[in-house]
Amino acid sequence: MDLHLNEEQKLLKESAARFLRDQYAFDRRKLLIADDAPSGVWSKLVDLGWLGAWLPEEAGGLGGSAVEFAILMEEAGRHLYVGPYLSASIASALLRNADSRGARERLAASAEGERHLTVAHLEPGSRGMMDSPTVRGIAVGSSYRLTGRKRLVYSGCFADETIVSAVTPDGPSFFAVPMGGTGVATRHYRTVDNDWVSDVEFDLAEAELLVGAPGYASALDDAIYVALLGVGAEAIGLCEAVLTQTKDYLADRKQFGRSLIEFQALQHRISDLFVETETLRWSLLDALSQSSSARTLRARSIFGLKIQAGSIATMVAGQCLHLHGGMGMTDEMPVSHYYRRARMIEAQFGNTDYFTAAYTTLMD
Amino acid sequence: MNLDFSAEDIAFRDEIRAFLSENLPKDIARRFSRGYHPPKKDLQAWQAILHKRGWSVPHWPVEHGGTGWSPIQQYIFDDECLAADAPPVSPFGTRLVGPVIYTFGSDSQKKKYLPAILSGETLWCQGFSEPGSGSDLASLQTRAVRDGADYVVNGRKIWTTDAHFADMMFCLARTSQGRKQQEGISFLLLDMKDPGVTVRPIRTLDAGHTVNEVFIDNVKVSADDLVGQEGKGWSYAKFLLDNERTVNAFVHHSKRAYRRTKKIAQKAQFNGQPLFDVSGFRNRAARLEIELRALEWGVLRMLHSDVPDPTAAASALKLKGCALLQNILDLALDALGLDAIPFYPDPEQEAVSNFF
Predict the structure, then answer these.
(1) Looking at the domain assignment, is residue B282 inside a domain?
(2) Does the ipTM surpass 0.95?
(3) Is the pLDDT confidence value at B67 over 80?
(4) For testing the chain B interface, which of A264, A277, A278 should be mutated: the one with the most B CBs within 10 Å?
(5) What is the model's pTM?
(6) Do A279 and B316 lie within an 8 Å CB cutoff?
(7) Does B353 have pLDDT greater than 70?
(8) Which of A201, B9, B66, B82 fits B252 for a cystine, CB–CB 3.0-4.6 Å?
């Protein structure tokens, strides 16, 4: 066991931090999130190798692991990155163990930045990623036609293709559907935390089968692992950043003739938030330690991380918001953005109640 | 980054398990499993067995009697010992004063004290806190006045764990008044058999006897039993308290308590089904289980990487660890329901509940 980052991992972390500091500072981010599409820093992220950083070489990646992905997501969280990176990574996770040619080609094209993928899995009425899809797929010759509705397709306005879960007579499967194709109607909108999402309605849309029913469950498990690991690591960067900024704010702001940070009541609150943030990092190590474990073991650790991330990030960012006083309520202050992102991490992919219920089914 | 236990670590764990199942006396394990503070005879009997095997102070440097195990092996050892209901070796000699003596002590102090700490023949207690000096420890008032070859010590210590059976006390006493209150404190090794030492028990809310008040009345301590330099005791005390960054996370205790809680809840019936299957209970258990997994990695992280701010991280482990252990024990009490009510004053008494 050795929990130090190796040299490559340290370099990756430093380069990601430097890039986001330079290109994604809060003021610049303000302009980027005002755009209609998340194209802002995307090509630069691709050039830096973010997409392939954690994928094996045979999948067009750089031979990294879940650790590399967590490093990048942590830095993303620190700088409140919103955009296609997480959804594209979940698409890669879905495809990485599939044996179809279509899956392999797309994995490589995605890692190279040649084709942008996203995932259409959640539906109106779903509560989280483990809910079964109701979109129907029927075979027509060598391809399929999909009919039904999906929601919360991240970067749907930007993606070339979406990986769609749908039920066929053989069982649930994953398909590729071009975003602008016939029979694909989209409605694009924004999220509370400034991300870009779409609702997509399929009406006999032409689709290519990528993962058939026999591989569905394990592909979905892989996607869930990467999705939850992503927001878990992101939450750590978020908590550390918002806590640092809040400490600085309290040191600057004077009331009753002295800096607010001199009040012991506020110091205690800051200490408590530090402790909670530490525990989140412990949960991340737990989840990383199970990245290639058997199904139940991996699921327990990653559900645990999601539960901790959602509840701790919400608590830490919410307390930081309160510590900012009235200023925390303004859009101008980063803390309000951290809070919104934290609250969405809690909701995303299924909330704490959802994953706690799932966790209890896996207890010995 | 490598987050796996190695094959050697797994083999090591099996070796420890085998040792425990062959060598841990059943009666000692039974008494400890019932949650009573271990009596002196159990502490000494178990440490003698460990000492025979060379395992009484795994964390010490090899030249002083340690095992040379890696941090992860020490972690596994502690985990397995507690899981088997072995009473933890008394920490005052082995974890606290021992390292101070082999780091700052004179050669004659090392020769005189370390062998008996290793074997457990001499048990120690810690004379730090005083009635007026708790978290502000450096305000302590116990005085040691030099008189020829001795110091004459006078004062009062409180919350002194095991003082009622300890052979020796490591004691902080003021030898001079410094500019800052941390200056002028000395680190003395005091014989508890001295007639000037009076120990008064403090009964605690568990009706047990673990801690004491100690009255020190004209006790003579030879100047040979001053550790390091006179007046520098505060730095040795800080070394001692800093030495342990993970023990206070109580992770092995929490793991053991959680396993027991789960067993109780699986056995307890609630509306015709095991309590553990009732969703309200199970949700609470899930959250604690998740925090417990995290705590374990918090400890492993402290042992296996360069944590940016180790002092703050150690505080986080201590705070979270204690809160978690309390929450697990609360869940255990709730799982027991009405069976939480009977009181068992005697560790040898037959249980009146079917949960023990």
Answers:
(1) yes
(2) no
(3) yes
(4) A278
(5) 0.92
(6) yes
(7) no
(8) B82
